[in-house]
Write a structure and sequence with these properties.
Distance between the termini of chain B: 22 Å
CATH topology of the largest domain in chain B: TIM Barrel
Low-confidence stretches of chain A: none
Strand order of the largest sheet of chain B: 1-8-7-3-4-5-6-2
Radius of gyration of chain B: 25 Å
Radius of gyration of chain A: 11 Å
Low-confidence stretches of chain B: none
Structural class of chain B: alpha/beta
Shape of chain B: globular
Number of strands of chain A: 4
Helix content of chain B: 40-55%
CATH architecture of the largest domain in chain B: Alpha-Beta Barrel
Structural class of chain A: alpha+beta
Mean pLDDT of chain B: 89
Largest interface: A-B, 23 and 23 residues
Strand content of chain A: 15-25%
Strand content of chain B: 5-15%
Number of strands of chain B: 16
Number of helices of chain B: 22
Helix content of chain A: 25-40%
CATH topology of chain A: Histidine-containing Protein, Chain: A
Oligomer: heterodimer
Number of domains of chain A: 1
CATH superfamily of chain A: HPr-like
Largest sheet of chain B: 8 strands, mixed
CATH superfamily of the largest domain in chain B: Phosphoenolpyruvate-binding domains
Number of domains of chain B: 3
Number of helices of chain A: 3
């Protein structure tokens, strides 16, 4: 399992437009991808409702995990989305 | 020709066929008769969800505002959420009817979102709306919400929730009429910012039949049904006169005899600077800083605050920017500033400066960020505190500002006690800014969001004019500035009256600036003072409005 630990930089947290962009990007990948707060229960990164319920706010860290071919690339893409204030 | 009258909250006129906001009463899911075939129930449920998603996508494609498009796209993603679809499928296969499967699956996510509060509380409303759409689809009922139409229409509703108004398309909606809501309700503020004529608190509106032609005057609050073509023509001409008047006067705000009344914009962040500059604002009269603090686990750092403030301050090199420090509490609670105890009446609780006095480190950090943002810039930075009640509040705030190196510290006048004793507060501060929205709510003891009280929430209430007059007089005696930064300043007639009552500057939503500038430029300061005097002498809001207009002779020609 490959992981990326990133700090949420978007002003609105991982909600609204940043959350939608995140889910749209994750949904394009074939493998399972999960998101969790450090030590928390992982949720499906392709589920906007689960992601909203995770309630990751600006300044908080999240862990994104995936496995399989192309996992490095998709995790980098997702981590970059989270780390920018869009 | 029938006529309804409500409160005009967004000037301009619109006429066209009425489309009613679709409210659907759905049968209780428990009453649904199961088909007995789980595969069929699952297929029906999933088809209903997909139909809702397709409808939302279609609306998103037609939306002209990017904000509305984002909301609609996010909603269509929610209906296609793999977790939701999995839950619906599973429940249907276990024997639930399609309606029950949909209802229960949404319930799970609603409960998860409801516990977090803030931004997500609004998403709970979204989920309810999406569930209702899916269930309506199952029963082949019309989908609730803002109607879709091939031609522009007049939107009529009992009331509109923030989630509904976010999706309004100014290209589609000619005017808005609601039965409930007041001048400072979400609907009114949004309609003004989008430039859609609107009448709220209009009894009988909800029973106007679909398709009726309505002529809506968002200034006077009159809604004419089945108007004659000459009526439509007359109102159109008035609208054209207004457009001409608004475009005719540019430059700084002043009366026709040259008394300057600087005109500023109210903003919530750097994103609104463009609109302020486009409409010729001479600066910012109210910068609400709450946006920076919302939906955060902890307060933004001093550096982050400084960068955002600097962006605003740089926009007006030769002007003035009045910043209101964090106005939290009440209906705007923040995670890192919990109210100290249960507040049965948050509007009268620890909000604004009262809360900052409990958390002085937040105030200190914000003032330091403001002082450092202004360093080296030519702009005149003024900082003010919300919810100041007495001299102790005023002195506390000014002292904190001085300590941070802020030379110009003022207070909002929005608590009646502060207005009544403005003469005691004036020597302690550098300026006043009258927040009419809260001043009206507190003076008339009427909650801003309670539609049934719209009549009381009228800024023309003589009691409110008295309070403004008292504060204006006290500021004048002390040789000090006294701005008005509430929605009241956006009404061109009232803007003249406020100037006559002693307001030295006016601040409003940017789109309202051109007409206010034109109205001031058409009258002398003496005419404004006479209008103010007769308005104060009136016994009711309606009389005050009528009496003031007698002295403001040019308004009619301007279509106001």
């Amino acid at each position: 399992m490959i992981e990326r630990k990133v700090t949420v930089e978007s002003k609105v947290g991982l909600h609204a437009r940043p959350a939608a962009l995140f889910v749209q990007t994750a949904a394009k990948a074939p493998m399972e991808i999960t998101v969790a707060k450090p030590g928390g229960i992982p949720v499906n990164a392709k589920s906007i409702l689960s992601l909203l319920a995770l309630d990751a706010r600006r300044g908080e860290q999240i862990v994104i995990s995936a496995d399989g071919e192309g996992a490095e690339q998709i995790l980098d893409d997702l981590a970059a989305l989270v780390a920018e204030d869009a | 020709m029938p006529e309804l009258t409500g409160v005009g909250v967004s000037p301009g006129t619109g006429s066209g066929p009425v489309r009613r906001f679709v409210e659907v009463s759905l049968p209780s899911p428990a009453q649904a008769v199961p088909h007995g075939d789980p595969h069929l129930e699952r297929a029906r449920a999933l088809a209903a969800l997909e139909a809702v998603a397709v409808d939302l996508e279609m609306r998103a494609r037609h939306a002209t505002r990017p904000e509305a498009r984002d909301v609609l796209n996010a909603q269509s993603m929610m209906v296609r959420d793999p977790g939701l679809i999995g839950g619906v499928s599973g429940r249907a296969m276990e024997g639930a009817t399609a309606a029950v499967a949909i209802g229960r699956s949404f319930q799970i996510y609603r409960d998860m979102l409801a516990v977090t509060g803030g931004y997500l509380a609004a998403r709970v409303a979204d989920l309810n709306d999406l569930r209702d759409r899916a269930v309506a689809r199952l029963y082949r009922l019309p989908m609730p919400g803002i109607p879709v139409s091939d031609e522009p229409f007049v939107l009529v509703a009992r009331d509109l929730a923030p989630a509904d108004t976010a999706l309004l398309d100014p290209a589609q909606v000619l005017a808005i009429v609601t039965e409930q809501g007041g001048p400072t309700s979400h609907t009114a503020i949004l309609a003004r910012s989008l430039g859609i004529p609107a009448v709220v608190g209009c009894p009988g509106a909800a029973s106007i039949a679909e398709g009726t032609i309505a002529l809506v005057d968002g200034a006077s609050g009159v809604v004419r049904l089945d108007p004659s073509s000459s009526d439509v023509e007359r109102v159109r001409r008035a609208a054209a006169s207004r457009a001409t008047a608004a475009g005719a006067v540019t430059g700084k705000g002043m009366t026709s005899d040259g008394h300057p009344v600087p005109l500023f914009a109210n903003i919530g962040g750097p994103g609104e600077l463009a609109a302020a500059l486009t409409h010729g604002a001479e600066g910012v009269g109210l910068y609400r800083t709450e946006l920076l603090f919302l939906d955060r686990a902890k307060a933004p750092s001093q550096e982050e605050q400084r960068d955002v403030y600097r962006e605003v301050l740089e926009a007006f090199p030769a002007g003035r920017v009045v910043v209101r420090v964090l106005d939290a509490g009440g209906d705007k609670p923040l995670t890192f500033l919990p109210a100290p105890g249960a507040e049965p009446n948050p509007g009268l609780g620890e909000r604004g400066l009262r809360l900052l006095r409990r958390y002085p480190e937040i105030l200190t950090a914000q003032l330091a960020a403001l002082a450092s943002a202004a360093r080296g810039l030519p702009v005149k930075l003024q900082v003010m505190a919300p919810m100041v009640t007495d001299i102790a509040d005023a002195e506390y705030f000014v002292k904190a500002c001085r300590k941070a190196g802020i030379a110009n510290a003022g207070i909002m006048i929005e608590v009646p006690a502060a207005a009544l004793r403005a003469r005691d507060l004036a020597p302690a501060v550098d300026f006043f800014s009258i927040g009419t929205n809260d001043l009206i709510q507190y003076a008339c003891a009427a909650d801003r969001e309670v539609g049934a009280l719209a009549r009381l929430l009228d800024p023309w209430q003589p009691a409110v004019l008295d309070l403004v007059g008292i504060a204006g007089h006290a500021a004048h005696e002390a040789g000090m500035a006294c701005g008005v930064c509430g929605e009241a300043a956006a009404d061109p007639a009232l803007a003249c009256v406020l100037a006559g009552l002693g307001a030295t500057s006016l601040s409003m939503n940017a789109p309202a600036l051109p007409l206010v500038r034109a109205a001031l430029a058409a009258h002398t300061m003496d005419e404004c003072r006479h209008a103010a005097k007769t308005a104060r002498a009136a016994a009711s809001a309606a009389e005050a409005r009528a009496a003031a207009r007698e002295h403001l002779h040019a308004l009619r020609d301007m279509g106001l």
